[in-house]
Amino acid sequence: MDLAKYMVFNGSIVLLVGLLSGAPMGSAINRKKGEETIRAWRVAHSGLVMGGVMILAVALVIPLLTLSGSLISILAWTFVVSGYGFVVALPLGAWKGHRGLKPRPRGINTIVYAGNMVGAGGALIGTLLLIYGSWNSI
Asked: Model-level pTM greater than 0.90?
């Protein structure tokens, strides 16, 4: 499998969800919802757009990295899984009014929390591999 193409495909999906999250943000602004609701949709919209673009950018620099095949696979998978973690967490949290910064109260908030942890953890691991691969190529 060409991992760069895999990342481009999945990064595009994350980007699309981010762009679509702009509609509920605009609706919340127009309907004069509370600042907390507007902020949550703004985070979902901007965070997912940036996450999708980040996955696309990483896909483009894969040829410049000096990493083994297995580390390139881990890099690709961690960024894609991270993107989908945030795809679950950010719109769901905005829709249901949960920030997911702690696993409790149980229920929707726990799902939002888990998505945030998967997203943050994957982004961290992927970024560390990106730094390592770029350092090796210098």
From this structure: yes
